[in-house]
Queue: 2 jobs
Job 1
Amino acid sequence: DIQMTQSPSTLSASVGDRVTITCRASQSISTWLAWYQQKPGKAPKLLIYKASSLESGVPSRFSGSGSGTEFTLTISSLQPDDFATYYCQQYNSYPGTFGQGTKVEI
Amino acid sequence: QVQLVESGGGVVQPGRSLRLSCAASGFSFSNYTMHWVRQAPGKGLEWVAVISYDGGNKYYADSVKGRFTISRDNSKNTLYLRMNSLRGDDRAVYYCARDPEEGSGSQLPQSAYFDYWGQGTLVTVSS
């Protein structure tokens, strides 16, 4: 199975900060990578697919980049609604493995 | 609008069985592969199983292979997960999720991401 490793595990930031989360794959996955946001007690919400494509309805302050084994999710100006846990997921092959999550806290 | 609503979770003893359901609405259910993804309390996300458009092809995570069965009834727009021989480490919130790629037949895509998720149903395995 392809292993996905996110860093950092926890990130403390303030409203207005630029935030970057990194996701590394144990082997090349081209651009078959998605990012999700999850708030407590809620289902994950798709933010980014194919490494850099913004899902419809997602604010443009979210962006994704990368290919191969290294990927980043960037929030250009952190808003109060963005405090949540973020997961990357590879879908190059089954099983579609997730990173362990990055909690963005105040 | 797309809606996925899971049901069937609850408390079950180790070794027993449970069947989860996921009622879909707002889209042509038979045109999408469907998945189950689970999340143990306080933990990350784990993909569980996928089923092809017509139900003819299925694939499972190693952790559930031989114990869980995914199925679908396209006439009822419903996805199922039959869970047998439940263990303590199966305790989790189970989500059904949709692969956004439309298609038909028994093919399975190479893998998938998920554009819509249900609200989840909690399964607790305890004596």
Job 2
Amino acid sequence: DSGVTQTPKHLITATGQRVTLRCSPRSGDLSVYWYQQSLDQGLQFLIQYYNGEERAKGNILERFSAQQFPDLHSELNLSSLELGDSALYFCASSVRGGAGETQYFGPGTRLLVL
Amino acid sequence: GEDVEQSLFLSVREGDSSVINCTYTDSSSTYLYWYKQEPGAGLQLLTYIFSNMDMKQDQRLTVLLNKKDKHLSLRIADTQTGDSAIYFCAGARNQGGKLIFGQGTELSVKP
């Protein structure tokens, strides 16, 4: 158990809908990362937050947004869902968000868009 | 640019050594990691190496880094059936924590 929790574990929804994925980092970690794992794109970095502020952005679509709240939990919002958004979404956390720090991954949320 | 490549499959017999290879194109990758993903589970950090190191050993795991060829390998000694999983190498630059992952190597250990 990494100490990072993600809810829900599984999500099934329809195209055009909007969903919110939630992540709680390990106790004491200030930085949160979101990654998407799909069959065709592999594991891709989406976005990183540190202490409530966006720190780095990767291949995140405009239909997706995220935020980190004062209690340090984070939410990833996916809207106007398409079939291709079906994937495993991971959250990870680290202490300060710098390179060389260990990122601890949650178990992931499996999203299926029908 | 940023690119990390791995072979997709490796099959070994229990008790043998496994060697999983990875090449990366970004010479700015200062930190290189190996993660393990078991079916239905998240990513578990196995080990990492800084770019100023050539080798790191941690129990059954040995990481070798050839900076000239931008080649990273993970050797698992005395491979067990419980080692069957997908292994990802990943790189991170100095200025940020984001990880660039390879496609993953599926290791199958046969008894």
